[in-house]
Amino acid sequence: MIETLISVKDLTVRFKTDEGLITAVDGVTFDVKPGEILGLVGESGSGKSVTAKSLMLLNADNTVYDPKSSMKLNLHDQSIDILSLKKPQDQMIIRGGAISMIFQEPMASFAPAITIGDQMVEQLKLHSNMPDEKAKEISIEMLERVGIPEAGKRFNQYAFEFSGGMRQRAMIAMALSTKPKLLIADEPTTALDVTIQAQVIELMKELVDEFHMAIIFITHDLGVIAQTADRVAVMYLGNLVETGTVHQVIQQPAHPYTQGLINALPNLEDLDSPLTPVPGDIPSPLERPTGCVFNTRCSLSLGERCEAEVPHNFNVAPGHNVSCHLMEQRMAANE
Amino acid sequence: MAQFIQFALTRAGMAIVTLLMVSLIVFSLMEMVPGNCAERYLAFKNTQGSQITVADIEAEEKRLGLDRPFLVRWGSWVGNVFFKGDFGDSCILRLNINQLLGDKFLLSLGICLTSLLFAYLIAIPVGIISAASKSAWLNGSLRFISYLGLAMPNFLLALMIMLFSTVMFGDSMTGLFSKEYRDAEWSFDRVKDFLSHAWLPVFILGWSATAFALQTVRALMLDETGKLYITAAKARGLFGRKLLWRYPARHALGPIINSLGFDLNRVFNELPIVAVILTLTEAGALLLESLARSNDQQLAGAIIFLLTASIVTLNFVTDIALAIIDPRVRKSVMGG
Predict the structure, then answer these.
(1) 3-state SS class at B262
(2) A-interface mutation test, from B236, B326, B331, most A Cβ less than 10 A away
(3) Where does B104-331 sit in CATH, by number?
């Protein structure tokens, strides 16, 4: 049995632009176990998508991975150093082989003028030597499995003939057809109605058990995370500020940013309670704050220290890690 | 398949309706010019010294059928054009228009279509490769050649080639035929002679058309390459040629195919200037002549109608081609 499926250490991603190097992800470290759902939470621009795309080397051509960064994919028979995969043939294992990805806009992720079936068969044939008929059979089975009625007929249709929920189901069917070990879901339910969203989440949870597959679930919606994830990692401006089990992070959030995110959720039980958004906007990556990246918006800021010093990563409870200067006092108080 | 046939039939029906509308507009324009054929003919006689009365004009109008209502005259003109391919007589030259035009329209159309064919045959693959290539050298030189083609007026290019060939080979390379074949019957040798002359206007017209299409294909490709479905295809493991031709290229071609009709019109408009310099006898020059100098509405109308008919036909063909490559067009019978 493999202990960790994905092991990311010190992942630092920069983009080469005319304004110089822009840091999108800064020293991110996390593991994903087989069969585990990791929720990656953060606002737009927090670097969660860049982090996930790094695992498939899907970031744009101007991406620079810091030499210290390491990403390992552990399979039964081999351990793959993702950053060492240079040739497209070698990258196929992390692109649709052992790792698959589904996107926020299922409409835009299917090629508009190629049938859903053709795209599914194409992927299966890329990753195996199976004949067309076999690939078609598996594709239709997968479409049926994700709950698409009349899968045989749907196989020959185009993305524009599917409804939004059906498209996302088809996208999941296609992503899982090659039986990947890790599914990266980049805001897969954001574009869906709430009722459809619940169905898709339910489906994904079933499939995790059935295929014994891990999921990195990217979202800005803490409600979705609470329903879905086993563990949660909160990102802010390219940094991982807090990681822990879903209980630890949602019920005992330790980082002021996580607390802010949770307080910002509308309260359905008390409709008169005021909304409490996290003040300010996420800074531009061109003007990353020094010290703690969150100090410009933090209501509990210690002032100079937070502005000057990058906080350590504190282990506040088993499996619960927080990068914040406030933890130092808390840890000291506990001792 | 049934859907496709329905699409094709609907489009064919729409093309015919368009042609009828065009014929009505062309016919109205022909009629709008002051003075009708009877008056003109008699006015011509008047200059020859004959005395003309109003009764003479009316008699002539009756003889030519000009006393019938407008719609009836349009109907008979359109009927002759559609069913007999007969455009009637030019009342200035008193000659049948079909005779006057002869092969000229077909030759002009042929030159324009050949220019476009070459333009697209070059522009589509080169544009796609250029968009996919990161080579600054390749893209730089293609851009240079393209802008040269777009910026340099065709007549200047024609003049330069004429000058060059006269100095180098002692042959001015003008005309569409050598002297001995100009009025000869069509034969294998005449075709050969024609081709040896026709490549030059095709080249001159084709250069700017190629440059235009090349930049369009490149821009469309870059646009498609940035789309999410390309990232999604990469995420499924596609790469290299398969990713390029099956995904963005196929989707980038739609707008290019769509612009064929518009391109034909543009090239046809450029042809007269090139024709004047290379002393080609073609329909564009004839149109200019009939409109500007002799005020020959019948001839002008016939040429405008033929050109529009060519464009409508080409648009019909491109609609069918689009429906083949893009299911969204095929499945929306009236759309696209």
Answers:
(1) helix
(2) B236
(3) 1.10.3720.10
